[in-house]
């Protein structure tokens, strides 16, 4: 995918769950444009719509109405397999709970998305080692998650997100399970990757001091964007 279109564009996105008295309007006409190379933090109270919009961006959920464009392509017009390819080839995911396979080495965990791409073993290992090197953990490649600290496990998860060369990393509360010092290390890492690799990062967080690492803050309230401001960004 190439061109001069914004990387991500949401136009009038709504998401409704349930019907009748059980109806919940999670998103109420969201307009959001993200250009390549941005680091965007999404904040808001529980139920504000921030997780729903991340699921839409990650092609894990479909909007009820509105248009989602990714590099100018209308995602709503893609079939199931095409959406899976978009996720696999253009998006990297980082979660609060790391989501690493327990009895599998760091290297093998990072290789996983490359297996789905059908790459040969030697190429997978080379790319996975490069990704681990970028997060400072190539020396722990043969350790499994039980032998790694929480911060190191999250670094492995970030390496896994990086391995396939995504255009965007979607990070959902990436420091939620970490203490303050480890949280700052992870945010320094993400900020550095954003600057040196020019990877677009969209991060959901409820922690204001973590959001300060981003260079744009989007605040959700009751299913819509209440505030969208540029910030200097830490790190």
Features:
34% helix; P-loop_NTPase; 235 residues; six-stranded mixed sheet; alpha/beta; 10 strands; four-stranded antiparallel sheet; Rossmann fold
Low-confidence stretches: none
Which value, in Å, is the CA radius of gyration?
18 Å
Mean pLDDT: 93
CATH architecture of the domain at 8-96 and 167-230: 3-Layer(aba) Sandwich
In percent, how helical is the residue content?
25-40%
List the helices and strands in order.
EEEHEEHEHHHEHEHEE
| Order of the strands making up the biggest sheet | 6-7-8-3-9-10
Q: Give the name of the CATH superfamily of the domain at 8-96 and 167-230.
A: P-loop containing nucleotide triphosphate hydrolases
CATH class category name of the domain at 8-96 and 167-230: Alpha Beta
Q: What is the structural class? A: alpha/beta
State the separation between the terminal residues, measured CA to CA.
30 Å
What is the strand content?
A: 25-35%
Please tell me what the overall shape is: globular
Enumerate how many helices there are, as a single number. Answer: 7
Instruction: Please report the total strand number as a whole number.
Output: 10
Would you give the CATH topology of the domain at 8-96 and 167-230? Rossmann fold
């Amino acid at each position: 995918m190439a061109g001069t279109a914004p990387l991500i564009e949401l136009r009038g996105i709504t998401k409704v769950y349930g019907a009748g008295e059980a109806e919940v309007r999670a998103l109420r006409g969201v307009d959001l444009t993200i250009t390549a190379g941005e680091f965007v933090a999404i904040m808001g109270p529980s139920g504000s719509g921030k997780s729903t919009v991340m699921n839409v961006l990650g092609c894990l959920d479909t909007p009820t109405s509105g248009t989602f464009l990714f590099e100018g392509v209308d995602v709503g017009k893609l079939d199931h397999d095409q959406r899976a390819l978009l996720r696999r080839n253009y998006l990297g995911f980082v979660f609060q709970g790391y989501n690493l396979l327990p009895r599998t080495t760091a290297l093998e965990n990072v290789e996983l998305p490359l297996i789905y791409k059908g790459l040969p073993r030697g190429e997978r290992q080379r790319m996975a080692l490069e990704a681990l090197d970028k997060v400072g953990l190539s020396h722990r490649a043969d350790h499994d998650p039980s032998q790694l600290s929480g911060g190191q496990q999250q670094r492995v998860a970030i390496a896994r997100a990086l391995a396939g060369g995504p255009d965007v990393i979607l990070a959902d509360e990436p420091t939620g399970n970490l203490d303050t010092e480890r949280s700052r290390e992870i945010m320094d890492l993400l900020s550095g990757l954003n600057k040196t690799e020019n990877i677009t990062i969209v991060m959901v967080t409820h922690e204001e001091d973590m959001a300060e690492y981003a260079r744009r803050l989007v605040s959700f309230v009751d299913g819509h964007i209440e505030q969208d401001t540029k910030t200097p960004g830490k790190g």
